[in-house]
UniProtKB/TrEMBL annotation, chain A:
GO terms for biological process, alphabetical: intracellular copper ion homeostasis
InterPro entries: Cu-R_B_prcur, OMP/PagP_B-barrel
Keyword Signal: yes
Protein name as annotated: Copper resistance protein B
GO cellular component: cell outer membrane
One term of GO molecular function: copper ion binding
Organism: Shewanella algicola
Signal peptide: 1-25
From TrEMBL, chain B:
Protein name: Copper resistance system multicopper oxidase
Domain Plastocyanin-like: 66-176, 186-348, 555-671
Record keywords, A-Z: Copper, Metal-binding, Oxidoreductase
Cited Gene3D superfamilies: Cupredoxins - blue copper proteins
CDD domains: CuRO_2_CopA, CuRO_3_CopA
Listed SUPFAM superfamilies: Cupredoxins (SSF49503), Pentapeptide repeat-like (SSF141571)
Organism: Shewanella phaeophyticola
Length: 237, 672
């Protein structure tokens, strides 16, 4: 099944449930809701550091959601990253959703398109997990695993460690991506929830390019490791 | 002791403006209503500075539903009210009379009024989609029915979330025959929860972040303090179950004092409600929990309360210091306050995030001190219905048994009449207890004579889920050793059936299943279990409740329906047997049948379950005096049984009365 069909199937089942709402004696248990989450919006403390964001949004019902994920980074007009995923999300277990759809990498160019299948959920010990497999054109494959944990210092002061790793099936020389484990990043952010929906934070972000990807970077005269201190905010509604 | 209830002159510093305007509208409304109402002499409400309930009595009532701006928090917000009042006017009916209620809807959306706990024809029950189509904007619906009962009840909207925004009021029905309860004065105490947030938004927030209103999650500091107290290994072990289950032991209420202001008769706590009494009076307080989401624990420091009615129905009086009142439940208590003293009627929310108060005094210038809230409850493993059969119970001295949840309080070995008996093989010490529930096992009535019971070997008894509630030794024919344990179990003693989780409980919308649910009968409930030891307070349990009137229908149940209350806290989805109302087939009762419903709570929340149209006859261990209720609290990870006589044809609602659980945790009951 190609990715267009996958998305079409997702949207179809979403629209099917859109039409099935009705009014009951006890009220509608499952209203159509949207949630928009700007998980990270931050700027490095050093003037040369990029501005970075990561956001998600969903639209739908308890058991059927259209899920959007986007993240990007802007250093200057030559150095930008921007990707968007559109997914259909469906629970497979009390704490787990399976998600499938498409991902498009708009920046850097040339842009790449992928079909996505992933799982997102809450693992024991309250780890937020997002794991996805990407299948691209010309036999390209990639995998991303990320985990996040919320450590409550107080009810409103929350420390969030997170890690992410990216793997690729084959070299993509145009984009400086090598096969195998390409990069690992870790972050630690301390936020203060002024209200549940809005929290400014400070943090540190560390990234390491690995293997062939690191070789590409070295050949371009780029750093293979970056550490930056960030300030930003988190918001949702 | 006395100093705690120190009296001080009442200072009216805050909210004087609010007070005045409120008084004005109360007086204005009363004047208007006085035209059509005759005050009932027993209910001469005291002139309190705070708002008291306005009363309407008679046979014909005109009620109009409107929007109204109110201010309980310092901010103005829109409420839905009846006759411009929040709470709606107290309706005083007389048993045996036919009442007519003309309800006009001035909202821009459908509305309805459901008469909670009132036995009436299905088309008068006020549930849109079941009884009628609801009351359209601008329309008037005329309810008419004959009042067949007496006691304390209430009414509320059954449309959308209007109940949360104030559409509720009290009903007091005076009995046709002399009241068995002796009192000189009575007050209705209506407890509720108010939020300035629109209820739709509260619900949406819970769907987006289920712990949105919980500001008591465990922190790093809690962890370190536990490590200091209990050591790292113990702390880690204690935490691992919760961590594995991805659940929070502080998840007591979905919606908390972080958005709610708790009201008593429409008064926020800083203002309080006030009631007066005179020397030597017995005062009957009619407590009604008309909250959307809040279960309250009620006490009056310095006074014993004699509980005389539950859900409007008279019970054999029980003297208590404290009781829990679930959403939609009512309790009547009689107190005997001393003159020249002031008493605080203190109702704290189950999660201790807030409270509401009243001042009961013989002198309006006296004001009781408000006690501090009790420690907040923390959920335990048993609240998940986990099997405790690994627990070592050998060598336990039954006479001093302290069960925590108190599940064996009905087991009275102390009164066992042994005569010259000989029971060599009766090895209670080796009993496998499972969920540890033996509520109905009353050895006290065991007629042993000079008997001999060599074959009675309890040690080999297969307890399964640990339920022996139907094991009534008093009727055991010793000679022939007739088995009474098998089958349905006797009326009044609850279910004998094994707990079964059906397939639909294993889908993503269900996050927990209680494998060994204990009986909720003798459990005071989370946060109250240690109050006897800690504060020497007698807390009411369902096990204490026996009907005053002998059991109305003495038939044995002909069948049993086991229903599991289910949910997914994280996704904020609620259901019965894993199936939400929209996807569920109706429950069918056969007209005239006597059946048992056993509710198994597969969640960690306490659910008040309300069956419309028919009584829920709670099996509290006495077949002769089964109390009748309309709303039954089901404790977390526990089970409870009641009997129903299907004597009302039609379509009836059956649901959890927590407003944001109700849409999913709901069934239609059809009696035909």
């Amino acid at each position: 099944m190609n990715k267009t069909n996958l998305v079409a199937l997702g949207l179809l089942s979403l629209s099917a449930s859109l039409t099935s709402s009705a009014v009951f004696a006890g009220g509608n248990d499952d209203p159509l809701l949207t949630k928009v989450m700007l998980d990270q919006f931050e700027k490095g403390v050093d003037p040369q550091d990029p501005t970075q964001f990561s956001a998600q949004a969903w639209l739908g019902y308890d058991l059927n959601k259209l899920w959007l994920k986007t993240e990007g980074e802007y250093s200057n007009s030559d150095k930008q990253d921007l990707e968007i995923q559109a997914l259909y999300s469906k629970p497979i277990a009390p704490y787990w959703d399976v998600q499938f759809g498409i991902k498009t990498d708009i920046k850097p160019t040339p842009n790449r398109n992928w079909a996505v299948i992933g799982v997102q959920g809450l693992a024991p010990y309250f780890f937020d997990i997002d794991a996805a497999l990407f299948i691209g054109e010309q036999g390209r494959t990639a995998m991303r695993l990320s985990a996040e944990y919320e450590l409550l210092i107080t009810q409103k002061l929350i420390l969030t460690p997170e890690v992410e790793v990216n793997l690729f099936g084959k070299d993509d020389a145009e984009l400086g991506i090598g096969s195998g484990l390409s990069d690992v990043s870790a972050g630690l952010r301390l936020r203060y929830e002024i209200v549940r929906e809005f929290a400014p934070y400070i943090g540190v972000d560390w990234r390491q390019k690995l293997g062939n990807t690191a070789d590409y970077a070295r050949n371009e005269g780029e750093e293979t490791q970056e550490t930056q201190f960030v300030i930003g905010f988190r918001a949702w509604f | 002791m006395k100093s705690q209830y120190m009296i001080k002159p009442m200072t009216q510093t805050t909210n004087s403006e609010l007070n005045n305007s409120r008084r004005r509208f109360v007086f204005g409304a009363s004047a208007m209503l006085a035209l059509m109402s005759t005050p009932f002499p027993k209910n001469a409400f005291a002139n309190a500075l705070s708002q008291s309930l306005s009363q309407l009595s008679g046979k014909v009532f005109d009620l109009s539903i409107d929007y109204k701006m109110v201010n309980f928090t310092g901010k103005s917000a829109r409420a839905t009210v009846v006759n411009q009042l929040l709470p709606a006017p107290l309706l005083r009916w007389k048993e045996g009379e036919t009442v007519t209620l003309r309800v006009k809807n001035n909202l821009d959306q459908d509305s309805s009024i459901h008469w909670h706990g009132i036995i009436l024809p299905t088309e008068m029950d006020g549930v849109p989609g079941f009884s009628f189509d609801g009351i359209k904007p601008g329309e008037t619906f005329e309810y008419q029915f004959t009042v067949q009962q007496s006691g304390t009840y209430w009414y509320h909207s059954h449309s959308g979330y209007q109940e949360q925004t104030g559409l509720f009021g009290a009903i007091v029905i005076d009995p046709a025959t002399p009241d068995p309860v002796i009192y000189d004065r009575d007050y209705v105490i209506m407890l509720s929860d108010w939020s300035d947030e629109a209820p739709e938004n509260i619900y949406a927030k819970l769907k987006k972040q289920a712990d949105y209103y919980n500001y008591r999650e465990r922190t790093v500091m809690d962890f370190f303090s536990d490590v200091n107290k209990n050591g790292l290994a113990n702390t880690w072990n204690a935490r691992s179950m919760w961590n594995n289950a991805r659940m929070s032991d502080s998840d007591i209420s979905d919606v908390t004092g972080s958005t709610y202001t708790y009201l008593m008769n429409g008064n926020p706590p800083q203002q309080g409600w006030q009631g007066l009494f005179e020397q030597g009076e017995k005062v009957r307080l009619r407590f009604i929990n008309s909250s959307a989401m809040t279960i309250f624990d009620v006490r009056i420091p310095g006074l014993k309360m004699s509980v005389v009615a539950s859900d409007g129905q008279n019970i054999q009086p029980v003297s208590v210091d404290e009781f829990r009142i679930g959403v939609a439940e009512t309790y009547d208590v009689v107190i005997e306050p001393e003159v020249d003293n002031a008493y605080c009627i203190f109702a704290q929310s189950i999660d201790r995030t807030g409270f509401t108060v009243g001042n009961l005094t013989s002198d309006a210038s006296l004001h009781a001190l408000i006690p501090p809230m009790d420690p907040r409850p923390v959920l335990s493993h048993s609240d998940m219905g986990m099997d405790m059969s690994g627990m070592d119970m050998s060598g336990m001295d039954h006479s001093k048994m302290d069960m925590g949840a108190g599940d064996m309080s009905g087991m009275e070995h102390s009164k066992m009449n042994m005569g010259g008996g000989d029971m060599p093989s009766m090895h209670h010490s080796k009993m496998a207890m499972g969920g540890g529930d033996m509520p109905g096992m009353d050895h006290s009535k065991m007629a042993m004579g000079g008997g001999d019971m060599p074959g009675m070997d309890h040690s080999k008894m297969a307890m399964g889920d640990g339920d022996m509630s139907g094991m009534d030794h008093s009727k055991m024919a010793m000679g022939t050793a007739k088995a009474t344990v098998s089958g349905l179990g006797l009326a009044g003693f609850g279910s004998n059936n094994e707990i079964k989780h059906i397939d639909t409980e294993f889908d993503p919308q269900v996050d927990m299943r209680a494998d060994a649910p204990k009986s909720g009968l003798h459990d005071p409930g989370i946060g109250l279990r240690d109050h006897q030891q800690q504060f020497n307070r007698k807390v009411l349990t369902y096990g204490d409740i026996k009907g005053l009137h002998p059991t109305y229908d003495t038939r044995q149940p002909s069948r049993e329906i086991q229903l599991h209350l289910t949910g997914n806290m994280n996704r904020y989805m609620w259901s019965v047997n894993g199936v939400k109302f929209m996807d569920a087939a109706p429950l069918e009762f056969e007209y005239g049948e006597r059946l048992r419903i056993t509710l198994v709570n597969d969640t960690m929340m306490t659910h008040p379950m309300h069956l419309h149209g028919m009584w829920s006859e709670l099996e509290t261990g006495d077949a002769d005096f089964i109390p009748r209720k309309h709303t039954v609290l089901v404790q977390p990870g526990s089970k409870i049984s009641y009997l129903v006589t299907a004597d009302a044809k039609g379509q009836w609602a059956y649901h959890c009365h927590l407003l944001f659980h109700m849409p999913g945790m709901f069934r239609k009951v059809v009696v035909k």
